[in-house]
Amino acid sequence: MNSVGQSAEGRAEEMVGRQGSLMSRRELLASGGAIVGGMAMGGQALGQQPADALAEKQTWPGRTFGDGLLKGKVAVITGAARGIGRSIAVDMAANGADVVGLDICAKITPEQAYAVATREDLAETGRLVKQHGRQFMEVVGDVREIAFLRTTADQVQQKFGHIDIVVANAATQRFKPLIEMEDWEWNDVINNNLNGTANTIRAFAPMLVKNGGGRIIVLSSMQGKHGSKNMASYSASKWGIIGLMKSAALELGKDKITVNALIPGLVDTPLTHNEARWSALIGEVTANENPPKNPTEKEAYDTRAPHVPLKVGWLKPEDLAPAAVFLASDLAAMVTGATYDVTGGDNANNQS
Q: Residue 253's pLDDT is what?
């Protein structure tokens, strides 16, 4: 049975099975320590995707990869209220890290095609982190405001005594032809995604320097490696994040700080979970200039899945988290300036 038709009971069993499959450090090293093409550490397939209520996908219990890979670490994660940010927060907690979850919990732009994150969402991330016996510090604020981020960095340093991991994940997107965009439509995406990522690094990296090193992980996108029709601001911001990451890696290496980028393929988050994005991806896959305006989730999934090597329409947020855990761990001490594609194999279409 494909994932779209998989029962709720089957998905629950699958989640429990994944959580219970613990890996030793030796097994993790042998597997290469990361997800490649949608396969989990050790080769466990994670790409099967249900295409129903998004809320069900936001309760991932977290996976432990043995030996407490992040034991004693403090991780700051932006955009932590849900989606990829939540999944990374929970997996890092499962592997021993205390978590600072930062989110705006409000509209990023005056008009959003997707649901707005709430304080309740951020509180739920905290609940899931605490289930693993780790501390959670909830912070509500805007990554576009560097003064706020610097104040937060000071507060985190005072509370925990150190900061070890920074994950710059907060993002937004806007669907509109480039020449029709208003100034605010362009600027809101660039300011949040690119400038917000730079602000996060500028605010928190000095704490990593002070503490003698650490890990910075930024979230780019496959759309940062190729153009995307009617999403120029998003592609530009995500392309810029890759250049930002590489520059920061060159500058911060002397301070024993690694800087890397996760490159998600299409992921079933609130940004994707809307008719505008489903319509756009059907148009991309079929080269249809006039795709259906109100497709169902299943129509979008079934249209795209045959064109992805692992035959998934999109990934789940939790498919990204193990790669983030690896990059944050001591196993990745010699990995910096790198892009890690987690796409279900869609990156095989890249020319470089």
A: 98
Encoded tokens for 261: 């980028």
Longest dimension (CA), the chain: 55
Our answer to whether residue 234 is catalytic in this structure is yes
pLDDT at 110: 83
How far apart (Å, rounded) are the C-alpha atoms in residues 118 and 80?
A: 11
Confidence of residue 351 (pLDDT cuts 50, 70, 90): low
User: Taking a C-beta distance cutoff of 8 angstroms, is the pair 62, 19 a contact?
Assistant: yes
Helix (H) or strand (E) holding 341: strand 339-342
β-strand partners of 98: 74
Q: Which position among 114, 234, 301, 340 bears the catalytic label?
A: 234
Report yes or no: 208 and 255 within 8 Å, Cβ to Cβ. Answer: yes
When the candidates are 3.40.50.720, 3.30.70.360, 1.10.10.60, 2.60.40.1120, the CATH number that belongs to 3-270+307-344 is: 3.40.50.720
Domain boundaries, the chain: 3-270+307-344
Question: What gap in Å lies between CA 280 and CA 290, rounded to an integer?
Answer: 9
Report long-range pairs for 281-285 (Cβ below 8 Å, ≥24 apart).
283/229, 284/228, 284/229
pTM score, whole prediction: 0.79
SS3 339: strand
Q: Mean pLDDT across the stretch 56-83?
A: 82
